[in-house]
Amino acid sequence: MMTYAGKYDAGINELAASIVDYYKARNHAAVFPVISCGQTVDGLGYGADLLEALAQHGCEGFYFTHRSGEVHKRYSEYAPPVLLEQIATAKRAGKTVVVIAVGGGCNGNATGVVAAMTNSHFIEVPTTPLHFNDATTSAKKAFSLVVDGKILSKNLLGTFYLPRLVFCINETFCTCNSASIHSAVGESTKTMNMIGIAPSTPGQRDYENILGAHEFASDTTAILSQVCGFERLVEFISDAQTRDAKRTALEAGAAVGRRRAELFAAVASGAPAAAVERLRVALEAARAEQRGQVEAVRGRYYSLPVASRAAISDFFTVINAEIVKAKAMFLAYEDPFEKYRALLFEYAHTLGHGVEAWLAGVHERAAKLGLDTEDAVRNHGQCVGMAVVWAGEMSRRLGALTGDGYNCHQAMVYLFNSFGGFSFGPVRALADALGITKAEFVHEVLEVVRLDNKRGYVECADCTKSVDQLVTRRPGQMLRSDDSNAEVRYLVTVDEAWQQSVLERAFDMEFDNVAHLEPSSGTITFAPLATRPRPPADSAAVADALRRRISALYADDECLASAPSEAPTASALESDTSMGDAQPESVKLLDNYKENHLEDGTRASLLSEGARGQKPEHNLVRRACPEGLTGDTLGMKKQRASLVQADIKKMPDFSDTLPANYREGYRAWRKGRAHGAKGEIDRPSSPAHRLPEMLI
């Protein structure tokens, strides 16, 4: 992975030269680049700029554009005959085909499938922060199940295929929209809540069963301190003059598209050379206008105050560094194919995917009616961010996440909701305009949830049940299941009614809140964004208080773990949740929600005390959590090694399918004799898994 912090034009030339030099050094006789990009990136000219730069280095290629959006993430859109014919023709001519995805995560994800199924080399050039720090760090590439413009299930057909290079030019982020920036933050709130402060002693205990968790330990909460940079960036992107400048650039891009189509049609029809040349000159003039208008957008960014640009730069630096480290904790050695522990990165994706799929169809309906839907755009990460709040609410009502733990969990999203990017209100307004009722919304979202690809890992034949992932006690600890197939993936079986409840409340806009810091008490509270917005000057103080509160929760755990204690009694072992990093789910836990819920006076009192932000005493935590949530006791540390080994034995042994020099390390790991990274420098992995030398 490489980031280019210099000027855009120099970055494009550097990327083109690096690609050509890399393949020339490996004696590839000819390289055939295929640029794949969606409508917006095509309109901004980023894909065409790279193709032209490659052509200047003697690499003529093919330019492929497709419709943007999740509803088009399907085989017919990304693998039409014309594209496959170009790839096949190049291969028959002995050329090395390099498929280059320029754009956002959806484009990179689906284009990667095409590269894999055609056995082509693959490069990703992210133009959104979420694509860079999240999508490219995963080997998963997939299409969704889309029928008649409706997403029935996300990412259902795919493969594992690593790019040979990820090259990001930071200046392209200047032309993102607000939804893209919120999307990156929404995904990071998921990661912050599931990993927390991994370098801390309690954090190391939380994930000491993960090979690589210590080496790449991420303090994801550092992202919270960058809220000011996030807000300055969104203010710049949302500014009327910036929006006008980008709109003008996209109009110039549309003119380029028309000139390009005219030229191709003339060439295909055998038009006279003079006519073809006139069209070529017109295309070049349109491209020059497009480049100038996009440069004007970047020029507005450089006109910002130095302090604002520094804050924005710090925001990108920290969010990229911490999220990439967090992904490496699980993907580098432990679970590169995301079948087991790394499935934790699906936290908040069950309902998030469901709402995202439903909303894509809603936007399609609105577009046919000519309705303005810009305010109701909620990209993938935004839907995940909203679902983080909903998952936290399910954990609270279950009794697994209360007090400061619950407040910190929710505040990670509400801190970044000053602009309403994680509010459901605009979506509700669009639904009302289309006559969509709450019942219809819930029904359609749950239809997608019932096809969620995580269900295949768990026995979930009961139509009243669903599969999800939930945080317990504090950020960084996940609820665990008695089912070994579920536990190894941090999955738990939940009642579909719980999901239905939070969706209904979301539709009623109960979660459209923003975090505040109360001056008198120093506590973090949540208030409706519509009636009590947060002044920008207060954001840093809220973030600082939130980080301190999370650190205090970790410090409490460390004190409890080191305090001398008598040998625990059987009853204490059954109910203790003080250090619950390996809590099994139980029938008691499931029944507790249905039987006691919030109608039980004693339980409602306990939960409301936690919801008000009061720090619970240790015994209160024990009583507030169901008996089935048995946690870390003082004697559990000695047992962990054998418990982890037992988990490993439950995993399928697929070592025979691995390259020989990878297989040795994998088998040693299964036997508890892991040594360093799989594919160490002194024992590199196979060429298919090795990073290109140009990246070292």
From TrEMBL:
Domain of life (superkingdom): Eukaryota
UniProt-listed InterPro entries: Dehydroquinate_synthase, DHQS/DOIS_N
A GO molecular-function descriptor: metal ion binding
Domain 3-dehydroquinate synthase N-terminal: 67-179
Region annotation (Disordered) ranges: 674-696
One Pfam family per UniProt: DHQ_synthase
Keyword vocabulary terms for this entry: Metal-binding, NAD
Statement: the UniProt record of this protein carries the keyword Zinc: no
Name of the protein: 3-dehydroquinate synthase N-terminal domain-containing protein
Upper lineage: Eukaryota, Haptista, Haptophyta, Prymnesiophyceae, Prymnesiales
